[in-house]
TrEMBL record:
Residues 8-238 form the ABC transporter domain. The lineage of its organism: Bacteria, Pseudomonadati, Pseudomonadota, Betaproteobacteria, Burkholderiales. Gene3D superfamilies: 2.40.50.100, P-loop containing nucleotide triphosphate hydrolases. It comes from Paenalcaligenes hermetiae. This is 2-aminoethylphosphonate ABC transporter ATP-binding protein. Keywords: ATP-binding, Cell inner membrane, Cell membrane, Membrane, Nucleotide-binding, Translocase, Transport. InterPro entries: AAA+_ATPase, ABC_SmlMolc_Importer, ABC_transporter-like_ATP-bd, ABC_transporter-like_CS, AminoethylPonate_ABC_PhnT2, P-loop_NTPase. GO terms for molecular function: ATP binding. PANTHER family: PUTRESCINE TRANSPORT ATP-BINDING PROTEIN POTG, SPERMIDINE/PUTRESCINE IMPORT ATP-BINDING PROTEIN POTA.
Amino acid sequence: MDDEEAFLSIEHVTKKFGAFTALDAVSLELRAGELVCLLGPSGCGKSTLLRCIAGLHRQDEGRIFLANREIGQLPAQQRDYGMLFQSYALFPNLTVEQNVAYGLSQRRRLAPVVHKRVREMLDLVGLGHLAQRYPSQLSGGQQQRVALARALAPSPSLLLLDEPMSALDARIREQLRIDLRNLQRKLGITTLMVTHDQEEAMMMADRIAVMDQGKIQQFARPQDLYRQPANTFVADFIGDSNCLFYERLDTYVAQVGELQVHTAMPLLQPNGRLYVRPEQVQLAPVGESRRPALQKNWFVAHFIDGIFLGRYYKLFFQLERADQTQIEVLLPAAQAEPYMQGLGKKYWLHLPSEALAVYKEVA
Ligand SMILES: Nc1ncnc2c1ncn2[C@@H]1O[C@H](COP(=O)(O)OP(=O)(O)OP(=O)(O)O)[C@@H](O)[C@H]1O
C-alpha cells in the first residue's frame, strides 16, 4: 500500500472451478472508507472475488484480511460485512421494518432497541414512511433501499455490493447511484462494488480495479485509468479510443498506411497500435487555409457518419491513404452540426503528437 494502511487486504487469491482458473493470484488493498469498484467484462471473475471475500466461495490459495484480522478461512457470518445483490432478496411475507430487523433479531416482535435501529436505518435510506408495507407494495428502487438498510443495520465494517443497480431502470438507477454514494461517504463505510457498467464505476468509485481473465489489469483512480491506461486491454475497455495500426519508421515516427505520423512518445516496438481519444482529434475545413498541410500530423479525411448524443456528436471520418483507418471525433453539438450536412466531404484532421499513445500489449 502506498501511504495508508490497508483496511481490506486481498493477497494472492486464486480460485479454480475444476481446471478453470477464475481468479489468478489476485491482490488488492482497500483503504478505510473508500469505495472501490471491480469493473470488467462478463466472466472476468468480479463476482467470484466478491464471493471469496464474503466467504460464499472458499479460495484455493491466498489470504484475506479485514481490519488486520484474517477472515479468509472464517465462516461467512463471522466476517463482519453487509452484502447487497442484484435481486433484492427481501422476505415477501415480512414488512419492510421486519425485513430490516431480520439481521438484528430474527423475531417478529421487535425489542425497543432493535426498533430504534430499524427506524434509523429506514430514515437513512429515506423510507421511514413505508415501514409497514410489504415488499410487493414497493418499487424496485425502494426494495433495493430496504435491502441496503438491512445490510447496514448491524453496522458492518465492510459493504459488498454485487451489481446492486442492474435490475433497475435507467432513471432510478441514476438516482440510487447518487444516493448510495452519498450514504457511503456519510457513513464512511469501506465498500467494494462489482459492476460491468463503466459509467457507474467512473461516477461512484474512488478507485477502480479493472479485471480481465481472473487478473487485475489496473487499479487506479478513474481519471488515471482514462488518461494513463496500463495496457492495451484497459485502453480498449475504458472509454472510446481510436486505434491506428502502425509500423515504426523511426523512434518518433510511425507509418500508418502511406501516412507518416509523428509521436511524442518513443515507439519501442517495430509495430503495434497507436491510441488517440476522440475528444483530442482536431478538425479544420479544407480550402480555408493551406497551413495544416505544412504542419505535422494534419491529414485529409472524409466525413462518413455522425451520431447525435444530446450535448455531443460522435463524428466518423475515414483517413485518406491510411488503409481505410476510421477516426472518431467527439464534438459539442453546436460545433458538430455543420459537419452533418456534408456526407463525403473532405476535412483536415489533426492527430496531435502528444495525444498519441502506445501501451503495453497484454500477454
Ligand atoms: N460455481 C461455478 N462453477 C464453475 N464455474 C464458475 C462458477 N462460478 C463462476 N464460474 C466461472 O468463473 C468465471 C468468472 O465468473 P464470475 O461470476 O466471477 O464473473 P463476473 O466477472 O462476475 O461476470 P458477470 O459480470 O457475467 O457476472 C466465469 O467464466 C464463470 O463461468
